[in-house]
Amino acid sequence: MATPAEPSLRIAMISYYLPSGSKIGVGYQAHELANELVRRGHHVSLFSECPPVDGAEYEHRQVHLPGSLRTFRFAWALRRVDFSSYDVIHAHGDDYWLWRRRTPMHIRTMHGSSFEEAGRVPGLWEKLRMLLLGFSEILATIVADRTVAVSPATRRWTPWVRHVIPNGVDTSRFRPDASKRADAPTVLFVGTWRNRKRGRDLAAAFQRDILPVLPSARLEMVCRDAPDDPGPGVVVLGELTDAELVAAYQRAWVFCLPSDYEGFGIPYAEAMASGLPIVATPNIGARYVTDEGRAGVLSELGSIGGELLRVLTDDGVRTGLEDRSRARSQEFALSSVVDMYMAAYRR
């Protein structure tokens, strides 16, 4: 709860995405931050295009916009919202039209760079959309009183952003439990089959490099867009509840997300808090979360299967990675992240 030395704040949080309507990590982080702030005694109203999230402890304010170009129209609709009763606006996107001062403090979190994504997303229209969002991110850094990035390399396109506050993970939920570890060697993936998460490439590497040596091994994929028959050894878990996701991390032997771009990569931090070794491609998020590979294994996509096999078959390597993973995960504890945001709010 907020104490007399830390009076309660009224916080307007903005996130187009929420777990109720999207798999994008920004929404999960906004939801977790808002819940933790409420637990500390603050009032949080979360403005989103998505419907309410089951179990949310904050006030949900839906800005529903049917039709196309909803992200841009959502940002424009926020101009009509009266934020004058709030102490803080904390935006995870879509605040670039909020030019005049509306609250004593306006914080913007940069979760990545749309310019980076524009170079990787397929399709001309999606590239154009990402470029437009990239320019909106630059506008947002001018509008906000303070902008923070979730990782140092996220600042590449906005080098004037000085502050880094990482994404946070609830370490009371994501924690190791050796009694639940699967008997068979198990790799866990959280992401999409297609595009930049590269689940399809991981499945191919697993079947090529791991199954011939470890025929009982499993690749469990928390994935909504995988095919009905992804091939031998691959188990598609689909969309999971929070409790089911925690159980999947605790069941696995190693976590792998071979994404070609992550601004941060919340699943890396969740896996580390759960005591899992990390094997990842060297995208900017994985490099930051694993401390440039000191708390995980960074490998190019072509050799990711061999690195996974090494971790699965060498107990000493795996145990050392588990220890470094758990130690590094403390940097991303949700309680510490909220402490940093509270200091930013009060400035």
Automatic annotation (TrEMBL):
Protein keywords: Glycosyltransferase, Transferase
Single Gene Ontology MF annotation: hexosyltransferase activity
Keyword Glycosyltransferase: yes
GO aspect biological process, one term: carbohydrate derivative biosynthetic process
Domain Glycosyltransferase subfamily 4-like N-terminal: 25-173
Gene3D superfamilies from the UniProt entry: Glycogen Phosphorylase B
InterPro entries: Glyco_trans_4-like_N, Glycosyltransferase_grp1
UniProt-listed PANTHER family: SULFOQUINOVOSYL TRANSFERASE SQD2
Annotated protein name in UniProt: D-inositol 3-phosphate glycosyltransferase
Record organism: Microbacterium terrae
Gene that specifies this protein: pimA
